[in-house]
Write a structure and sequence with these properties.
This protein has about 210 residues and is an alpha/beta fold. The protein folds into two domains: about 35 residues; about 160 residues, Rossmann fold (3-Layer(aba) Sandwich), CATH 3.40.50. It is about 45% helix and about 15% strand. A six-stranded parallel β-sheet has the order 3-2-4-5-1-6, sandwiched between helices. β2, α3 and β3 form a beta-alpha-beta unit. It binds adenosine-5'-triphosphate and magnesium ion (MG). The site of magnesium ion has 5 residues, from α2.
């Protein structure tokens, strides 16, 4: 049923009044946020979109000419779309530091050695204010499986340069990491094409 002109006018007036109240609340909260510093962001959960989110933020940072370091733990493939695209950017330093998931390598000693070598690269970036954003893709697994000492990792993250942003991705982010983080997003797995039998699609999944 369509509304009368009076009803439409009343609806518009109610909406306008609600927006005035909303603006006041938002303006006040913006005014309260005055701090400027590097953020630790954790993107975790079982849904698709963790690395995608990190790379999206990376595009923003690069848009401002910021220098970005990427450490990809676990993964060993170097033929992804993201690496082909971002790797060409002179402001990007891209390292693939994994040798596959633990059920592929089946060798804990080897996984620990790989993790330590990868972490050394990350540590160099986390000690250098020249990197304005550092992406630590799939770092959570190194903590979850105890390949790295979690206190050591948290300490390095906590003591990084003041203005440096860090994004950590991966499932099962440990509580201590989430506590240290400024922003934590948990991506839920509502549905994924893979379960309907669709294999990983170029340009979407890799
Ligand atoms: P993406 O890189 O697509 O943002 P992600 O970082 O959230 O994914 P990863 O665990 O790194 O998740 O998985 C990488 C690959 O696994 C991608 O091909 C992605 O589509 C796929 N994937 C992610 N989540 C799921 C899921 N819930 N079920 C099946 N496949 C998944
Ligand atoms: Mg990922």
């Amino acid at each position: 049923m369509s509304l009368t002109p009076e009803q439409i006018a009343e609806k518009n007036a109610r909406h306008a009044a609600r927006m005035v109240r909303k603006k006041a609340v938002i303006d006040a909260s913006i005014a309260r946020a005055t701090e400027d510093r590097g953020l630790l962001i954790v993107i975790t959960g079982n849904g698709k979109g963790k690395s995608t989110s990190a790379f999206g933020t990376m595009a923003r940072a690069l848009g401002y000419g910021m220098k970005v370091g990427v450490c990809q733990f676990i993964k060993s493939r170097t033929d992804t779309g993201e690496e082909a695209f971002f790797g060409k950017n002179p402001n990007v330093e891209w390292h693939v530091l994994g040798d596959g998931f633990t059920w592929e390598t089946q060798n804990r000693e080897q996984d620990i050695a790989t993790a330590e070598r990868g972490w050394a690269v990350a540590t160099r970036m986390l000690n250098d204010p020249g990197y304005q954003l550092v992406v630590l893709d799939e770092l959570t697994y190194l903590l979850k499986y105890d390949y790295l000492d979690s206190d050591m990792v948290l300490d390095t993250l906590a003591n990084r340069p003041d203005m440096q942003h860090v994004i950590v991705t991966g499932r099962g982010a440990p509580d201590a990491l989430n506590e240290l983080a400024d922003t934590v997003s948990i991506i839920a797995d509502e549905k994924h094409a893979y379960r309907a039998g669709v294999k990983a699609q170029r340009g979407i999944d890799l």
